[in-house]
Write a structure and sequence with these properties.
The protein is an alpha+beta fold. The protein has helices spanning 29-43, 69-76, 143-156, 186-197, 215-221, 237-240, 263-269, 306-329, 362-371, 419-425, and strands at 50-52, 62-65, 88-98, 102-109, 112-122, 124-130, 136-142, 166-170, 179-182, 204-206, 225-228, 247-251, 259-260, 276-281, 291-296, 345-346, 378-383, 389-400, 403-411, 417-418. The N and C termini lie far apart (77 Å).
Length: 426
């Protein structure tokens, strides 16, 4: 079976005013076949979100919106999205209402590959059309969906987005990078989320350092490069050097400072003033390889909770990696050796590290609470009015007039509560 191709801007059919589909023909084999061909062509395009029938050579007033766009729209609005939503069909569509409020938005087109420009679109529209069964409906839309409705309706009227666009630029696609991602923490999840937003998706994700590495599966992939982000396990040298472009590591500190397993906690505890993310080419030594990219990141306020620092640094690392990977495999990145005379190391955290010594100065204890807020949790022992010793996890705290004071706590066997509530009962 020959795959349906999407016509490019030179095709004359793209400049014609498409014809209405007779209502009695909507369920016909001809129209249903056209819908199948449209879907086939749209699904073949990784970045395709919608298609109009003239783009496959059929001058009829039909367009299709890919079901994959709806979960993205819901997610952007903070709504829970279903995993799969079918494509939406619009036959003889007519936009019957445009909002007065407009906005310049970035657009591209499957028929004008890799050109992008700013187009003024109404922020909200209402469309009237028929679905594939011939049922008439109306639908309101805002944001991206409203933009798609206007773009596809233009197609049916022989108008291409470049007829309206400003600042049109040719942005060719980034080269495909085949990579394996090793990450077993929330930090690595943030890195991967941001990386995938740039269009770089791993061929394989190894998410557990406890499980045996699937060496044969990894070898069969013949990946260009491996990426490691807070994996929790040292990879053997032969694996690090397996890909053509070796193995990169995203590390949440300004290397060579704070090498090792707990750089974020160490940043908070040690009053480290310069914070940031480094990407290195790994070697067999811990966080030792040459630097490929490094970004210093200011934090305000500082110190802050571990989870806040972890997310900020992870997302920055993912965006850095998204920009770096295509250049790295294209041999456009220079390597800078680390200055080992400036190196420092962090230690693996143990549960007992969370114990607060109330004889320590207030800032030391506050930093412990912040650094260990996710794990293992900062804790102390409090003797209540009845002489019972209670283990109390301190979730948050503050310094008042130079004195360390918990604000949120979890007493043993209880739910989280304010420090004042705890004191009233003890």
């Amino acid at each position: 079976m020959i795959q349906t191709k999407i016509l490019q801007k030179e095709a004359s059919v793209l400049r014609k005013h498409a014809l209405d589909v007779p209502l009695k023909s909507i369920g016909s084999k001809k129209i249903q076949t056209i819908l199948v061909r449209m879907k086939e062509a749209l699904d073949a395009e990784e970045d395709g979100v919608a298609i109009a029938s003239p783009q496959i050579g059929e001058s009829l007033r039909v367009f299709m919106v890919s079901g994959k766009i709806f979960p993205l729209i819901k997610k952007s609005k903070g709504m829970r999205a279903r995993k799969e939503i079918k494509d939406s069909i619009f036959i003889n569509p007519e936009i019957i209402k445009f909002s007065k409020k407009t906005k310049k938005v970035e657009e591209g087109c499957l028929s004008i590959r890799y050109l992008y420009g700013q187009v003024k679109r109404s922020e909200k529209v209402t469309i009237r059309a028929y679905d594939e069964s011939g049922k008439r409906f109306e639908r309101g839309a805002s944001g991206l969906l409203a933009q798609i409705f206007q773009h596809e309706t233009d197609h049916l009227n022989g108008i291409l987005f470049t007829d309206k666009a400003e600042n049109v630029k040719d942005i060719p696609p980034k080269p495909k990078v085949k990579f394996v991602f090793f990450g077993g923490s929330q930090f690595s999840n943030y890195v991967l989320e941001e990386l995938e937003l740039t269009g770089l998706v791993p061929s394989l994700k190894i998410g557990s350092a406890k499980d045996p590495l699937p060496i044969e599966q990894i070898k069969k992939l013949d990946a260009d490069v491996f990426v490691v982000a807070s994996f929790g396990k040292i990879l053997p040298k032969e694996l690090i050097e397996l890909p053509k472009f070796k193995t990169l590591n995203v590390h949440p500190s300004l290397l060579p400072r704070l090498r090792g397993a707990a750089p974020i906690q160490a940043m908070i505890l040690s009053k480290e003033e310069k914070l940031g993310v480094t990407i290195i080419k790994m070697d067999e030594k811990m966080d030792h390889g040459p630097i490929l990219a490094q970004v210093e990141t200011p934090f305000t306020p500082w110190p802050d909770h571990y989870r806040t620092a972890e997310e900020k640094l992870g997302r920055i690392g993912g965006r850095m990696l998204g920009a770096l990977l295509p250049k790295w495999v294209n041999d456009e990145i220079n390597e800078t050796p680390q200055d080992n005379t400036q190196s420092s190391y962090t230690q693996l955290i143990k549960k007992e590290d969370g114990l607060l010594n109330l004889n320590d100065d207030a800032e030391t204890n506050l930093r412990k609470v912040l650094a260990y807020s996710t794990w293992p949790g900062a804790y102390m022992f409090y003797t209540n009015k009845r002489g019972k010793n209670i283990r109390v996890v301190v979730k948050d705290a503050q310094i008042i007039n130079g004195v360390f004071s918990p604000t949120r706590v979890i007493p043993a066997g209880k739910k989280e509560m304010s420090w004042e509530s705890f004191l009233r009962g003890n």
